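To the team - zinc ion complex, inputs and output below.
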Amino acid sequence: MKKPGTIFIKGGKVVSGQTAAQLDVLIQGERISAVGSLPDFKADVEIDAGGLLVLPGAVDTHVHFNDVFMNTISVHDYYTGTLAAAYGGVTSIIDFSNQTPGEPLINTIRTKKDEAEGNAIIDWGVHPVITQPTPETLDEIPHIVERGAPTIKCYMTYRDEGLMIEDEDLKRILKKLRDAGGMLMVHAEDNDMLEENVHRMIASGLTQPVYHARSRPPEVEDKAIRRCIQIMRETGGRLFIVHLASADGAELVGAARAEGLDVIAETCTHYLVFTDKMLERDDGVKWICSPPLRSKSIQDRLWTALQDGRISMVTSDDAAYSWEAKLMGSGRFDKCPNGIAGIEPRFTILYSEGVAKKRISLPRFVELVSTTPANLFGLAPQKGSLIPGADADILLFDPHARWIMNQKTLHMAADYAAYDNIDVTGKIVKVFSRGELIIDGDRCLAEKGRGRYLHRKLDFSLRAGI
Ligand SMILES: [Zn+2]
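Output:
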């Protein structure tokens, strides 16, 4: 669609900071130029948003596109992944670029640029993943931060996949990031503990999907989180725990913050909507992810941690594998590529399960999916808030629409849906990215390749919402 000069979004319920009020939004070119009770304005396009919510585009800082992992590759590339994202109200994503042996981190970013250019339909950024903590890689960290990728991830597990980083190296990486103005992201699961469990279960013939969860109980996360917190006591800096699924782990994070340590955690949509019961089904491999799905009581406590701020945000951890790839794990849970396709459901599911079911407020929801991810990952003030001067990444959302989420109503590239036959309240009506209408109801109007690289810089004065 051709970009109009000015767009006037009238009379929707606009969520900004802690308030939600009926306001107008004016877009000029790619930016928001005014938000408020605006007098009648002669715009090129006028949109009546009466009865709708007007929200900042969602920011998903945890997705895996073209990810080579466990003898397969994720099926979301920069076109199919960002297309599904856009249908799900996401206007910015940050993907992971894994370092291969001997590879400079800067090359991993270049690889992602090659994958994204000509394909991405929304804006995108990269978190390099260190797998080879050599002196050369450590020396590269300040340069990478300057190149707009100030958030680097390390795994404390997946030793067999060549991804695991030892604690002494985590400490070195964290110090480098601290000094360069960056943030370390960690996948916190204790490898020794889970590896021993996996070997014992496989040897005893306990190979069904449910044993994936039993081999990685919450204590596996808690032990790794304690190790991270101990490292933080020695180094300072900022640490971000990805995909927290342990309620006791959330308490550890809360206690570390009370101690004055800069530790932040996210959880992911699937931990808030599915429990480990899904793994007992015949098609249980669909829900194999790490950390695994937990019990109902842990899930309830994760919701509480989202309400009280011990967990700061929610991402999708989109890792979409084909059904054929998932079936590699049907007789051996440890052979199943870990991950769930979730980039599209995240926003609407969190609204439906959170706001519509009165577990979280509407402003808290916006913080969890848009504002806090933008603030913590160096995208504010351009992304994450509806304020004058920000990019016009805007969603119009019908809070009352009821529909069934399943493989037919979703647009993701996997050939099955873990989010299958879920009753949902709330529907995305329109999505604007930098002032351009890219999703209009069921139609995508975006041109392939219009997405831009997000050059990020962390602002440590912006904290998590609570
Ligand atoms: Zn992940």
